[in-house]
């Protein structure tokens, strides 16, 4: 029987605090993807992400093909899909939707971190030192922790999937 302190997404052998931490991490990522995904359907957010898209060679075509709002809508749809997939992980961590949501999350943050290399104004020189600008540099750098969270959730999904397949065979 699972302890009330254990939380819903922990693995056997983890302490209650580790299980609650994993649950909070998943919940936070779900909320981030659902919130950010919905916002991409607004003109305000489409304008905000446009500079990142037009300076990133792998996504510029998306902007050129679909325009500012169309590209933002497509990205928002992918983010909503990631959020829903991660939410499925609360109940079926080894399921394909959970695995897909976590994989999309990893790819999302790999892409946004690559904006650090392609977006003008990320690095500013102050007193002879290369520093990250508050925006967009520091804004993008927070995605390092979101990438780490995404890798953790992908690891959970892959481990649960492997365990599920072993039980089935």
From TrEMBL:
The keyword Transmembrane applies. Coiled coil: none annotated. Keywords: Membrane, Transmembrane, Transmembrane helix. It comes from the Bacteria. The keyword Transmembrane applies. InterPro entries: RclC, RclC-like. It holds the Pfam family DUF417. The chain crosses the membrane at residues 74-92, 99-124, 144-160. This is YkgB family protein. It comes from Sabulicella glaciei.
